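so i finally got all the pieces together for this one. its two components total, 450 residues if u count the protein bits. some of the lines might not be protein, just check the labels. i wanna see the whole assembly predicted at once instead of chain by chain like last time, that was a mess tbh
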Amino acid sequence: MSEFFPDAIFGSVAADSWFGFDRIIFVRIVLTIVVLGLLWLGARNAKLVPGRGQSVLEMGLDFIRVQIAEQVMGKERAKPYVPLLATIFITVLAMNIGGVIPGLNIAGSARLGVPLVLAVWLLLVYLSAGVRKQGFVGYVKSQLFPPGVPKVMYLLLTPIELLQVLIIRPATLVIRLVANMMAGHIMMVLAIGATHFLILEGAGLLKLAGIATFAGGLFITGFEIFVAALQAYIFALLSAIYLNFALEEEH
Amino acid sequence: MITAETPSNPFIPAPFEIIWSLVFVAIFAVFIIKYLMPKMTAILDERAAKIEGGLELADKAQAEAAEARAETERQLAAARREAAGIREEANSDASQIVTEAKTKAQSEATRIAENAQRQIEAARKSAVVSLRADVGALAAELASRIVGESLADDARQSRVIDRFLDELDETMTAPAGEQPAAEAAGGAAQTAGARESEA
C-alpha cells in the first residue's frame, strides 16, 4: 500500500495533514503540465484547415462530444455539458496514463483525490441542473418518487433512490476508477518486481520464469494503456448518463 | 508495508490530497472550459459555416446553371417556334404570291384576249362600215350608170352591167395602187352619171 501513500517530499502526509507533497502529487503536477502543454500546442495555432496535431485534438474532442455527450443526452441537451464532460474525460485520461509512463509509473488517479473531486463536481452539477430544469420539488419528485409504483413501495424506494443519487453514483465512479488504477499498478509492480527478483536472484531455471513475468509485465503495460482510456471513457460516459437522469422528467 | 505515518485506508483521503486534487482539477477545468473548448468550438463553427457557405454557393451556382439551361431551352424553343412560324408564313406568302400571279396572268390574258377581240371587232366593224360605204357607192354608181344609159334596151342594159362587172373585176383584181384609178374611173362614171341625170 505504501506505493500509494509514499513519504512526503515536504510537508506532512499524515491522515490529518492539510498540506503535504508526495510522489503522487508530483506525478500529477508533471501530468498536468505535460498534458495541458500538449493540448495548448494542439490548439494554439488552431486553423480552419487543421494541421496534424490539431486534427488529432479535434478528433479527441469530437469523440467526447459525439460518442459520449450527444449519444447519451441528445444534441441539444448535451451542449452546455460538453466542456464539463471534456474536462472529466481529459483529466481522468491524463491522470490514468501516468501509470504507464516510465519514470512516473503511477497513475495520478490511483489515489482518491482527483476522482473524488471530479465526482463531487459532477454531483453538484447534476443536482443543480436537475433543480434548475424541474424545480426543487419536481426534481426531488422525479428522482425519489418514480411514478408507476404502488405508494407503499416508496417506503423502500425513496431511501434507495436518495442513496443512489447522492452517494452511490458518485462513489461508484470514484471507486471504479481508483480500484482499476490501483489494481493495474499492483499488477505491474508485481510483474516487474518478480522479473527483477527472478532474473537477478533466481537460481538456474527460475531465470527463465523471469522472462515469462517480463512478458507479463509488457502485456500488463499494454493492458493498462487500454484500461486508462477505457476508464476515462466509462467515467465520462457515466457522467453523461447521470446528467441525463437529472435532466429527464423520469427515469 | 503500512506504516504508522501513512493512512491505511485508501478510501479515506487525507485533507492535503483533496486540496491538491482540487487544484489539479481546477487547473484542468479552467484550461479546458475557458481556453480549449471555446477555441476549438469557434474553429469548428467557423469551419461548419464555411462548408455550409460553400455548399450554399454550390447550390446557388447549380440553381443558376439550371436556370440558365432552362432559359436557353426556352429561347431555343421560342426560336424554333419562330422559325416554324416564319416558314409557314413564307409558305403561305409563296402560295399567295403564286395565286396572285396566276390570277394576274389570267386577267392579263383575258384582257389581252378581250383587246384582241375588241380590235377584231373594231376592224370588222370598220370593214363593215367601209364595205357598206363602198357597196353603197358601187350600188349608187351602178344605179346611176343604169339610169345614165336611160334606155330600156336590154342589150344596152346588159352591156352596162357587163361593163360594170368588168370594172368591178378590174377593181377587185387590181392592186391597191390602181385603186385610185378605179376610183377615178368610178368618179368619172359618177360624174358621167350625174351629168346623165341632169340631162
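Chain A touches chain B through 52 residues (CB under 8 Å).
Residues 2-247 of chain A form one domain.
anyway lmk what u think
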